[in-house]
What we know:
The protein is built from no helices and 13 strands. It has strands at residues 16-20, 26-30, 37-45, 51-53, 59-67, 75-86, 92-101, 106-108, 117-120, 124-133, 141-149, 156-159, 165-172. Strands 3, 4, 6, 10, 12 and 13 form a six-stranded antiparallel β-sheet that branches. Strands 5, 7, 8, 9 and 11 form a five-stranded antiparallel β-sheet that branches. It has a two-stranded antiparallel ribbon with strand order 1-2. The two termini are 41 Å apart.
Amino acid sequence: PVGSGGTGLTSGTTDQILKFSGSTTLVSAAEAAGGKVGQVIYAESNNPSTISSTSTSYITTGISVTITPTATNSKILLMFSSGVGSTASNGESMRQWYRNINSGGETDLGAGSYGMANYALASFTPYELTWIDSPNTTSSTVYSMWYKSDSGSNIAYAVWAGSYYYMSAMEILA
């Protein structure tokens, strides 16, 4: 029988893992690089106030997270969840991520005037939005959720009163 837990190895090196070097041989090896979560920053509320507007230009929800990447080649995985809606039966409520690096001004991360998400409904619905950003910085970076209405007569709800919201930023190491 093979001792040492069946590996035959009697020692290893810090931050090393076991891998197969052949069909039946285990050896100590360096951990795989990249794809690890470096840090997670989040904001949440179990019972928020309503956030709504008839603005037809993107405005901030006031919900944001601040993350400082540890490497310029890191990716930032963004997630947002809340209850949203609008008052008009054919009204649209739109969402958009914004980024502000080192207080240098807002940059939208979306896809044109409709933003990243668009809802045409007259009621409450759960809402999720995910984005991967490459900010190319190690400076303090604020990510925020913005929203707008399709018309001044339609109230767009970015957060429905009493519904839960959650926003997170995760640094994915290269």
